[in-house]
Specification:
The protein has 13 helices and 13 strands. It has about 475 residues and is an alpha/beta fold.
Length: about 475
């Protein structure tokens, strides 16, 4: 278990040097990273966040390609990070290894399942000008770094199935990227639900986020492409427990300054999804619909996501859970056993929802031009460099020791947003937008499947202007 000086982020610390020559000029040269305890690393037991899992599994004989890519890119690995048990939570707690400390909000959850990964990035500050942490904790980390310069962590790899990168990124005030499904190898990564699993990463700096992404995605350096439009899901932002304009106004003003206000569009995402994803009607009776949601079709989408995740988790780990009966923490234990005892019903419907949603959102993010003829009016897609903006999570990070029913309600609400990328296979980035009531807030941008390089470039282009607008918004709030 990591010590207090590591904010509880690490399960074990070690150093693995880059596999390349120190004289080579590589994209990640000089950077350090940490690895979530879900990736295989040759000679180490992959713990999956649970001592019983570690006890019943042997050391890996190979290293996950995603980790090898980081080492080949010139980065140095600093160790393994804490995660929620079996990656089956978005809270960031672990009864066995402890809950990593949320540097910006010590009385709040760090978010999971990649909790240690997010804290490792947030706690090892490199560029202080970004303003991602509360001022007091910036000073603490800065003083700590003066004595531990050899232990800076520049970025961290993680996994994101239901929100395991996006949620802790939002809670900890850092950047978190979930790539398009299937574009980064998940070989050597313990699966949660294969049709939803992705390998994501965290960074404090948009440049590093982009550099890591280009290595993992094997992308060439290209000039950024201007977005054709940015669609604000105006029915999703009222889900926030803070004034939604505090988030949307910062984004819109930044976009207007860089690209012009004409590219900002608004849409009621729930109505659009209800119309374009007819298979969702099969999930109207699910108990999620009985919760207090403002966007009912997205609650139904969340239900479809959770049913698919539960089934694939059972197929992957049900036999091990039933045989070993592992010691699991509260919340996770109930969720795991519910999955193991579940029946695989209507899975074809879940996959139909995925297909329909991906097609619908691809159309939404396309640009339609109108062609006139004597007989009819025709529209067709002329570009696909559109962006969808939504909240990352439905509010501020929950407090530590929040009552389980309250956390479950928050979790249900969160998945109505998180399942959009999961079920469409789109890429998504969570971007910090400073603080509200001294707690971190964020916004998420989504792009169509395969547009990861476009989205990474956009974040880097937008980030400086966003920081300016965040400063203005926070000054006005005082």
């Amino acid at each position: 278990m990591a010590g207090e000086s590591d904010y509880g982020a690490f399960t074990e610390k070690f150093i693995i040097q880059p596999s390349s020559s120190p004289d080579q000029e590589l994209p990640l040269k000089g950077l350090t990273f940490a690895v979530k305890d879900i990736f295989d690393m040759e000679g180490y037991v992959t713990g999956f966040g649970n001592p019983d899992w570690a006890r019943t599994h042997s050391a890996a004989t190979t290293t996950a390609p995603a980790v090898l890519a980081m080492l080949s890119g010139g980065a140095t690995c600093m160790g393994r990070t804490v995660m929620d048990e079996m990656a089956y939570s978005i809270n960031g707690e672990n009864k066995h290894y402890g809950t990593p400390k949320n540097i910006c909000s010590p009385d709040r959850l760090p978010g999971g399942s990649s909790s240690g990964s997010a804290v490792a990035v947030a706690g090892m500050l490199v560029d202080f000008s970004l303003g991602e942490l509360c001022l007091y904790y910036k000073l603490v980390v800065f003083l700590l770094m003066l004595h531990k310069l050899d232990q800076k962590v520049s970025f961290v790899t993680g996994t994101d199935t239901g929100g395991s990168v996006r949620v802790p990124a939002s809670y900890c005030g850092i950047l978190g990227f979930r790539p398009s499904h299937g574009v980064v190898s998940t070989t050597g990564v313990i699966p949660l639900a294969q049709s939803l699993d992705t390998v994501g990463w965290f960074a404090r700096d948009a440049d590093i986020l982009n550099r890591v992404g280009r290595v993992l995605l094997q992308l060439p350096e290209v000039e950024p492409v201007k977005p054709t439009h940015i669609t604000i899901a105006e029915d999703c932002f009222p889900l926030l427990s803070i004034p939604n304009h505090r988030v949307t106004s910062v984004l819109v003003k930044s976009v207007e300054k860089l690209f012009g206000g004409h590219i900002v569009k608004y849409a009621c995402l729930g109505d659009y999804v209800k119309d374009k994803v007819p298979t969702l009607k099969h999930f109207k009776g699910d108990r999620l619909e009985n919760q207090e949601y403002n966007v009912a079709p997205l609650a139904a989408l969340s239900s479809a996501y959770r049913r698919l995740e539960r089934s694939e988790f059972k197929n992957n780990h049900g036999e091990w859970v039933s045989t070993i009966k592992p010691d699991l923490g509260p919340g996770i234990s109930e969720r795991v056993w519910a999955a193991v005892r579940s029946t695989d019903e209507n899975l074809d419907v879940c996959h139909s929802v995925k297909t329909e949603l991906r097609a619908a959102l691809t159309a939404l993010l396309g640009v339609f031009s109108i062609s006139f003829s004597p007989c009819y009016l025709k529209s067709h897609v002329t570009s696909d460099h559109g962006i969808l903006a939504i909240p990352t999570v439905p509010g501020l990070p929950p407090k530590l020791q929040t009552e389980p029913p309250t956390l479950e309600t928050f979790r249900f609400r969160a998945f109505s947003l998180l399942s959009i990328a999961g079920m469409s296979s789109f890429c998504q980035v969570s971007i910090p937008l400073g603080t509200y009531d001294n707690l971190p807030i964020s916004v998420s941008l989504l792009a169509k499947h395969g547009s990861d390089g476009f989205l990474l470039n956009l974040v880097e282009t937008l980030y400086g202007t966003l920081r300016e607008q965040i400063d203005i918004a926070q000054e006005l709030s005082y």
